[in-house]
Predict the 3D structure of the following.
Amino acid sequence: MQKALKNVQQWCSKNNRTLSREKTILECKVCDEAFAQQGEHVPRLLQCGHTVCHSCLMKLPTQDVTLLCPFDRQETILGPSAVWSLKKNFALLELLEKLQIVERERNVQEATNSHSSYPGPSIACDEEETHVASVFCTVCLTNLCAECSDMTHNTRTLMKHLRIPVSERPRQRPKCQYHSLHFVEFVCLEKSCVDSPLCCFICKDYGRHKGHMHGLIETEAEKLRLSVASAISTGKDVGDRLQESIRKLETVASQFEGSSAYSPPVLTETVTIGSAEAARLHIQAYFRELHDMLNMQENAALLTVDSYIREKLCFIRQNHEDLSVVVSQISEICQELEKTLQADEIQLAVSSSAIATAIAAIDDRQSEFSERRLEQLQPDASIPITFTKNNRVQIGPKVEARVITLGLDGAGKTSILFKLKQDEFLSTIPTIGFNVETIEYPSLKLTLWDVGGGAKLRPLWKHYYLHTQAVIFVVDSVDRDRFAEATAELTKIANEKELRNSALLILANKQDLPSAASVEEITQAFSLSSLLCGQFWHIQPCNVPSGTGLSEALQWLTRQLVTTELALS
Ligand SMILES: Nc1nc2c(ncn2[C@@H]2O[C@H](COP(=O)(O)OP(=O)(O)OP(=O)(O)O)[C@@H](O)[C@H]2O)c(=O)[nH]1
Ligand SMILES: [Mg+2]
């Protein structure tokens, strides 16, 4: 460092230039501004070894997190704080500081050597009035010419006094406005004196500031300087942090605009979307796959129907052909028999065996093609179609489902079962155990389990849950006193793990009775919306005597089981 400093000094003297001006040799080679100890022109080091001021670095173009050196185009990788993360060139900063000290000492030297170097109004030497003062002793507080300075400060102690050019002499203290013979030395710290806090020692000890808190002007000024410096540094910190936030916002904004790399996502996979464009692409890809999948499913469904139709037509044509052959055979036999009617007795007697054979053939055909057999040969022209939940088509064979009917005792479960099975309102007795019936529709076959609802039987309900696709919960709409009890049972059912994929149909039964609670009242009393949040559920008003509501209830159930209304059509 000393060597570098010496080189700079030598360069200055060789080139006959002053140090103060030649600070510019320590300037940023991009903007030609002198480097500074702090602020915009603080020197920062690039990884290639070049030094550029902070301000210029901020203006340089960046590629992602790298910055190119303006001199050799080499890359420097930036940290998370961008340009702020680059190290300051401390060697250069130290050199700058030393140069400032050297310059200051040189100024004193020059002032000491030359009376005329101080361009301001001349100040008389305190030792010899006819001399012009060129330096100010900061310890003796005297203005001195060079000669008197040397003369008065020639002892070992006095030589150490710091003497500065008179131009840099500290300002003289003002005189006290109440005691004109004395300088102000103190600052009064009382709040009431904030408007005129300066005072001399007389004001402080005997005058208007007597008894007040006070401090030395230098001490108080130093405290103020420190708090100002601290506020400045805090301000800079805040500024730096805000700058960092701005940079991050810019990064996020550029990512939104589509700078980030994008790889097409897989259907159903959750991807982290990096930019607005990536999000759009992700959505388009998702729906493209969905459309493709639906097209494939539609084609597969059509193929299934086409092959079903082909098989059916083949069957019909075969039957048609077989029956036509039989019809022509019968017609031939009939023609032969009609001829025998024209014959005389002798001929008839001779042909009796052939006639018996023909009659037997007709009898055979008659018994072979009974009404029932002919019905079987006439296929139903309808094509019963159902769709599974994954959009596969199902023709013919019925969708089978296991359903359990639960609810408090007396709610009407058994009555409903009998109504669905036999279309009758039968008298019932309380169920001990269970009843089970199979109920068939064109495309649906329900196995309906009706389990007794007495309090002692309810713990047994759970044994019926396995493989159950739907639960029918029957509520006696008249029995408001037991709504709370019914809600408690429904809550247990709703929380059953084994039933979490089952559809839940609530039948508000006995709507034929005048005091029956409406569906809305029951929904509210049972808090169904919150209780069954996230489940497949439906509430249907119904009554057994007329059967009103039961077919709608089953239609909803069927939709849940086969996802199509065709099942019941
Ligand atoms: N008015 C009217 N009465 C009904 C209706 N449904 C059922 N009932 C009557 O309510 C009573 C109880 O019916 P059940 O079908 O035995 O009740 P349950 O739910 O099977 O009762 P448990 O087997 O004890 O669990 C019987 O007297 C039925 O006639 C309805 O819709 N309207
Ligand atoms: Mg019953």
Observations:
- Residues 124 and 255 are 71 Å apart (CA to CA).
- The pocket of magnesium ion (ligand 2) is lined by residues 413-414, 428, 431, 450, 452 (CB under 6 Å).
- The longest helix spans residues 276-342.
